[in-house]
Amino acid sequence: MADPMRIRAAVAGDETTVRVLMSHIMEPGTRRDAAGALIPGHFIKDVEATHNGKVVLEAAFSGAVAQNPFLSFKFKGGAKGDKVVVKWVDTKGDTRTDEALIA
Amino acid sequence: MADPMRIRAAVAGDETTVRVLMSHIMEPGTRRDAAGALIPGHFIKDVEATHNGKVVLEAAFSGAVAQNPFLSFKFKGGAKGDKVVVKWVDTKGDTRTDEALIA
């Protein structure tokens, strides 16, 4: 299983800023090995972020997204102690779900 | 038409960091006016970012995303001078497309 995401969520005024660092090889599927054979793609495809169980953002990554993807966004309505959950699914169907409390 | 996005893209090593600030009211559709009537929703639904014409990231926002949405992510393979284009579509079908060159 992949390493946990690092998720930071902090509220200021009525906006919560979320920063997510995912741990993933993000092999694009377009590179070739020394023998000239294509290296199979293996990358995070779908990301979903929820606040107190309600989806606030979904993202679809291409194979071009950098190794150990970083994603940051803001939403309104968060409060200290609320739960932010991030889930990703990769091209092999592997998945990882992690959470953080809003600080 | 909505105000332009502010897009910043900078390459370091083999990773390009993109920061996008969109200008949008992001009315969630769940608020009520003084008379108790629901205020119709009006928010950015879909965002697409391309690098040299190739999609690197798509995002789907909910009405909970904060006013003037901010989004940041990284992709690999960018070079100085390459074009990054970001497009959004909102719940009224309004759309805006802006671009930046990688610095």
How would you describe this protein?
The structure is a homodimer of 103-residue chains. Chain A has 103 residues and is mostly beta strands. Chain A has a single domain (6-101), classed as Immunoglobulins (Immunoglobulin-like), CATH 2.60.40.10. Chain A contains no helices and 7 strands. Chain A has strands spanning 6-12, 15-21, 44-51, 54-61, 70-76, 83-90, 95-101. Chain A has a 4-stranded antiparallel beta sheet with strand order 4-3-6-7, with no helix packed on it. In chain A, strands 1-2-5 form a 3-stranded antiparallel beta sheet, with no helix packed on it. In chain A, a hairpin with a 2-residue loop joins strand 1 and strand 2. The first copy, chain A, is elongated, with a radius of gyration of 15 Å. Chain A binds chain B through residues 14-17, 26, 28, 51, 54-62, 64-67, 69-77, and chain B through 14-17, 26, 28, 51, 54-62, 64-67, 69-77.
Straight-line N-to-C gap of chain A:
28 Å
Give a quick account of the main beta sheet of chain A: strands, pairing sense, barrel closure.
4 strands, antiparallel
Here the CATH topology of chain A equals: Immunoglobulin-like
Strand order of the largest sheet of chain A: 4-3-6-7
* Sheet/helix structural class of chain A: mainly beta
Gyration radius over CA of chain A: 15 Å
- Give the CA-based shape of chain A: elongated
Number of helices of chain A: 0
Number of domains of chain A: 1
Q: Averaging pLDDT over every residue of chain A, what do you get?
A: 95
Q: At the fourth CATH level, what is the homologous superfamily of chain A? A: Immunoglobulins
Greatest contact between two chains = A-B, 29 and 29 residues
Helix and strand string of chain A, N-terminal first?
Answer: EEEEEEE
What's the CATH architecture name of chain A?
Answer: Sandwich
How many strand units of chain A? 7
Q: Approximately what portion of the residues of chain A adopt beta-strand conformation? A: over 45%
